[in-house]
Amino acid sequence: MTMREEFIRTEMLFGSEAMERLAAARVAVFGIGGVGGHVVEALARSGVGALDLIDNDKVAKSNINRQIIAAHSTIGEYKTEAAAKHIRDIAPDCVVRTYNTFFMPDTAGEFDFTQYAYVVDAIDTVTGKIEIIMRAKAAGVPVISSMGAGNKVDPTAFEVADIYKTSVCPLARVMRREMKKRGVRSLKVVYSKEEALTPIEGLCNDGGARRSVPGSNAFVPSVAGLIIAGEVIKDITGFTR
Question: pTM for this structure?
Answer without folding.
Answer: 0.95
